[in-house]
Inverse folding.
């Protein structure tokens, strides 16, 4: 057979090969469907008819076809590369193929149709912008067709083409096509994919693949390739939320420290303000380095090395983000999980969770339900077997920084790895934080309290980010802790007055004031003290979500209580201020006469006298009021807020 590449034909070549200047965009798409629906044949037909096959490839396929006893060239062999695939005439592994037309470049993922290899389909489709779901015209819509359509929807693929294949076997009958379209449409109505195109084709004979078929005049749409060349690409690319997971710290000498990684979403420029998670430390981008030299901007998808203006401890697994566009931070996740291992999921067993560049131990705490992909019903389940998909609750040993998979597939996806075999056992897509511990959005999150039956968290009407943008400063919670008489309230009042005069939205919460109302029913036992701080934390969180800088002056003697309140806020937005003064200094001040009363037995469970105080181990700020005036302490707090870029005034 003569070569399909004619002299002067540049189809399938890159601009660098042809010398042409414009760079074409790239469409990644996947094929899906049931066994023998013709996925590999369709891809072979696309490659053949677009003249994207070299002569030696054709000769190899012709030879393989003869060995299999075929009386014609089997185009499916262009993608079925494994020996087992050719012998069984099915696709087992994911095959990737590249081709190009004068209008666009393409990368195809040919995924298996057999239920045994559903996990391979998930892998192949995870980066696709479009899915071509094939349906055999002679068999109609089968379970695997529905399964793959559901996975397409689950993965957030924005475009779907339903290719009704093998129309040549049903005499190109419009009635058959219409019945399949109606059947698939009833199922697809329950999916989230909005752009669905139906095309009748014959992959074997080429009808409506690259050129319009003359044997189906009743079909008024264009061929498959036309849709592939014109569909909008980039719908899954998040160009807004800057996320830079650090892969490696580069330190070639004492004068250079850079952080290598990929801008998985968004962009950043030299001079931009950034925050490093999990520390919450603020800094600026000093430079953006590449192999070809420094650049002013790092765009989504680009591998670069960032340097910062400040010396901050940054390591692999940290994430660099913008200060006013932070990801969610949580240990417990609500996620969909596709189980890929022959050994069933074990609830409560530790696995390694791989998320961006972080590796953290995690457990599956529970399974909400298993998805019946044929009916989309939610079946109760205590485990997941290979290729099953379920909605689960995952708890990680440390917080991770993520976005919903729907908003950002790069930071919303993860895999689970078996700690003993090192095998990847599951792929996950994060929906959000679990409803009972939604640390940044659900105010009951970081506490041990339960939620009343029938109560549903509604979410915030106006997002905090919108409030922050309007008022010109970030929200934060400054938690002033220390013994009675240390100066917490005095400092808090001075700081609030200065912030208010500079135009900031503020709120001051004082322990005594809350005990006159919200916490008036509580005493001073350890349990009552815990409940007092829990309620105070909930109130602080509400004002925080309103966009305020909330100053909280509470003795809060227990580290666990303060830690729970910290867990309600995103990373970098909770500032623990240890107002330090020894008992003798506080007793000498005794502004409310409490130490005198406690010394005579008039007060039980008084902190520093008859009840303990647990000093903060690593506060963001320590103020020693034994040697510092209240005004100087207030200036110290304001300066910290400026250096942390929580305020710009």
């Amino acid at each position: 057979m003569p070569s399909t590449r004619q002299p002067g034909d540049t189809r399938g070549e890159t601009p660098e090969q042809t010398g042409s200047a414009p760079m074409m965009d790239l469409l990644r798409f996947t094929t899906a469907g049931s066994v023998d629906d013709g996925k590999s044949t369709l891809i072979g037909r696309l490659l053949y008819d677009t003249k994207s096959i070299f002569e030696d490839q054709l000769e190899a396929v012709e030879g393989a076809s003869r060995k299999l006893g075929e009386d014609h060239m089997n185009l499916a062999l262009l993608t079925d590369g494994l020996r087992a695939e050719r012998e069984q005439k099915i696709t087992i592994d994911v095959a990737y193929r590249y081709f190009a037309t004068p209008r666009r470049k393409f990368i195809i993922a040919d995924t298996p149709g057999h239920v045994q290899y559903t996990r391979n389909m998930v892998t192949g489709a995870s980066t696709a912008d479009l899915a071509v779901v094939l349906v055999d015209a002679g068999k109609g819509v089968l379970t695997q067709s529905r399964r793959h359509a559901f996975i397409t929807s689950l993965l957030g693929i924005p475009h779907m083409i339903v290719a009704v294949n093998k129309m040549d076997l049903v005499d190109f009958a419009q009635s058959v096509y219409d019945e399949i379209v109606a059947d698939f449409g009833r199922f697809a109505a329950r999916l989230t994919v909005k752009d669905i195109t139906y095309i009748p084709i014959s992959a074997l004979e080429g009808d409506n693949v690259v050129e319009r078929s003359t044997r189906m005049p009743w079909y008024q749409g264009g061929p498959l390739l036309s849709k592939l060349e014109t569909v909008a690409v980039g719908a899954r690319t998040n160009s807004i939320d800057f996320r830079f997971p650090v892969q490696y710290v580069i330190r070639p000498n004492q004068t250079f420290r850079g952080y290598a990684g990929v801008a998985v979403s968004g962009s950043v420029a030299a001079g931009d303000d950034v925050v490093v998670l999990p520390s919450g430390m603020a800094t600026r981008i000093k430079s953006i380095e590449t192999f070809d030299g420094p650049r002013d901007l790092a765009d989504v998808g680009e591998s670069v090395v960032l340097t910062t203006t400040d010396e901050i401890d940054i390591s692999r697994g940290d994430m660099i983000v913008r200060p006013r566009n932070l990801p969610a931070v949580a240990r417990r996740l609500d996620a969909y999980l596709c189980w890929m291992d022959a050994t069933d999921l074990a609830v409560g067993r530790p696995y390694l969770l791989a998320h961006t560049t972080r590796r953290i131990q995690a457990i599956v705490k529970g399974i909400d339900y298993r998805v019946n992909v044929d009916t989309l019903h939610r079946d109760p389940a205590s485990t997941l077997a290979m290729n099953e998909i379920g909605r689960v609750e995952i708890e990680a040993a440390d917080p991770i920084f993520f976005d919903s998979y729907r908003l950002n597939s790069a930071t919303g996806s993860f895999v689970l790895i078996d700690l003993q075999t090192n095998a990847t056992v599951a792929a996950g897509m994060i929906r959000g934080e679990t409803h009972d511990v939604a640390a940044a959005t659900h105010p009951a999150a970081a506490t041990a309290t339960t939620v009343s039956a029938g109560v549903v968290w509604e979410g915030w009407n106006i997002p905090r980010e919108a409030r922050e943008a309007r008022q010109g400063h970030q929200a934060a919670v400054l938690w002033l802790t220390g013994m009675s008489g240390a100066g917490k309230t005095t400092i808090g009042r001075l700081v609030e007055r200065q912030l208010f005069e500079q135009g900031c939205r503020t709120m001051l919460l004082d322990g005594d004031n809350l005990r006159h109302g919200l916490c008036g029913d509580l005493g001073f036992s350890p349990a009552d003290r815990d409940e007092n701080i829990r309620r105070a934390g909930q109130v602080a969180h509400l004002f925080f979500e309103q966009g305020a800088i909330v100053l909280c002056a509470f003795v809060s003697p227990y580290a666990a209580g303060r830690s729970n309140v910290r867990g309600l806020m995103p990373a970098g937005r909770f500032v623990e201020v240890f107002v330090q003064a020894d008992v003798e200094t506080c007793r000498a001040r005794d502004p409310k006469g409490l130490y005198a009363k406690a010394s005579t037995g008039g007060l039980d469970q008084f902190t520093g006298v008859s009840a303990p105080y647990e000093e903060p181990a690593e506060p963001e700020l320590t103020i020693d009021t034994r040697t510092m005036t209240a005004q100087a302490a207030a200036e110290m707090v304001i300066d910290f807020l400026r250096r942390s870029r929580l305020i710009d005034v």
